[in-house]
Model the fold of this input.
Amino acid sequence: MTKLRKYFFGYLFVRIAKLLAIITLLVGLGWMASKYVQTSIAADSASYRPSELLRQQLERLGETFISTRELVGEFAGPGSGAKEVVAPRFARVIHSDGDFERLTEELGVAERGQQELKQKIVASFEDLTEKIEQKLRAHAASLEPPPAPAASGVTPAATPSPALTPSTVPEAEDAETLFSKNLSRMDVLSRSADLERTKQLLKLLEGMAENPDNRRILTESAAQIDALSTLLPKIRPEPTPVSQFNQSPPSSQPVPSATPRPPPLNAEKMADQLGRMRATVRATVLSSWSLDEVLGQASETAAVERGGCRVASLTVKGIWLGGLGQIGLALVGALFIAFLILVFADLTQTLLDTATNTGIVADSTKVPSKNS
Done:
């Protein structure tokens, strides 16, 4: 009993060692659970949030693509296949790298569809003018000897567009067109003037053509220009006061008595002129579409949001790696401390047993000396 009091805390430590080890593990697990919750909250706060602006732009892009496809199909006709052009399909929620990968693919579908629709708009006109250009170049190549420099090609003078006065400023009508609403009225007039000059060149070539088939092709090309002109936004000029017609003096230029005969046609130069004319028509008709504007905005916003999503993903990964690393260290530490408690309990038990045995042996050696 005296020895029990002497080694009270040693015996107490040995008896509650397992309980201490369990308590240590429970404290470690509780800390780890708390750390996991904190890490989850921090990761959730740093995670990427789907962009409402991007969602709205993608919805607008899908609607604009469908309406553009309908307009092109009505213009090009049922046999053009415009209405069979595949439209992009965007997910309603985009919040991960995988979603942005699929979005990039769908934006590529929209871009390819856009180019396909544009090609269907000018396909007929370009086919006709390319035929004439090829015939002109073939004719120029067959000439022996080549034409003299004096027989220069006829470059038709640009048809002067009427000057806009404050009383004749056009006003765009509220109608659905292929073109962006940001296209100014002056741009519309400039494009109309470019198409009109192209039409005048085709008419000039038609008057010079001797082959009936060539005249037919040129007539159809001019008709295509008229059709392409209808795609431009409609403008409505305001009525001009009558008094303005008398503000400028009559022209003093002499009126030609007869229409001069055009000089000989230079086939090579006219072929080059047709090539430039075709490029002008493409730039006039195929630029500044509403689909171009919406697709550009959606692509730009998607690129920005994808960068933000990547940054957020890396941040979330870093938070989880740091949190899980601390949780792992805490688990190892709790297990190690519990193991040390049990080890020290065994050592303490050994020391107590040794002390007890030593005391018993000492008592037994003292007994014979008392009897003697």
